[in-house]
Amino acid sequence: MDCTFPSAIRRPSQPKRVPWSTHIWVVLLSLLGGVLGIGGAFLSEVGSGGILLGVFIGAPVIEEAFKPIGLYLALVRWPDALSNQLYTALLCAAAGLIFGILEALVYLYVYVPDHSARFKLYRLTIPLALHSMSSYTFGLGLDRRIVGVVNRGDPLPKRTRNFYLAAVGMHATFNISVTILSVAGLVDFD
């Protein structure tokens, strides 16, 4: 007769406990990804083949892929720290916010240095929300499987693809809408 005590019952594997210091590194790396994402924005402008193509296609496609670069690195180094999808999405949103702040500063002090107060208010509100929301959306589809896509050439998981396309769609719709409203004279920042 075989006696099994409760302590000997096989339990499903518990997620590894991740030290708080690792979470600090993950958060810092995620925020750094927002900074590194500016390189993606530069690439979209330089290699887009024209202002309209860049605004409507290049910026959303490239920026949404680049903003979570810190999370990609964190998924390689500390995949157990990013086992919660909401946590991953919130970190992506934070990276998008950092990206948006840096982009706003470039617009305010490089592209349009003689800006109005209304333009400054616009650049520091709506685009920041857009970058955060679109990055959050993409973050809902990011998990450790993205590492296999890069390292082994695994197919992109449908969930990741769908959330990425949703983020790109949000971003592109925003850019197109703002452009149409500006050209039509319905939005004036002066």
The percent range for helix content is: over 70%
Structural class: mainly alpha
Query: Which regions contain 5 or more consecutive residues with pLDDT less than 50?
Result: 3-10
Mean pLDDT: 86
Major β-sheet, in short?
none
Termini separation comes to 87 Å
Tell me the overall shape.
Answer: globular
Order of helices and strands: HHHHHHHH
Proportion in β-strands: under 5%
Tell how many strands the DSSP assignment holds. Answer: 0
Q: DSSP helix count?
A: 8
Task: Supply Rg.
Answer: 20 Å
How would you describe what is shown here?
This protein has helices at residues 20-46, 51-66, 69-77, 85-111, 117-123, 126-139, 145-152, 158-183. Helix content is 71%, strand content 0%. The protein is mainly alpha-helical. The model is unreliable at 3-10 (pLDDT under 50). It is built from eight helices and no strands. Helix 1 runs antiparallel to helix 2.
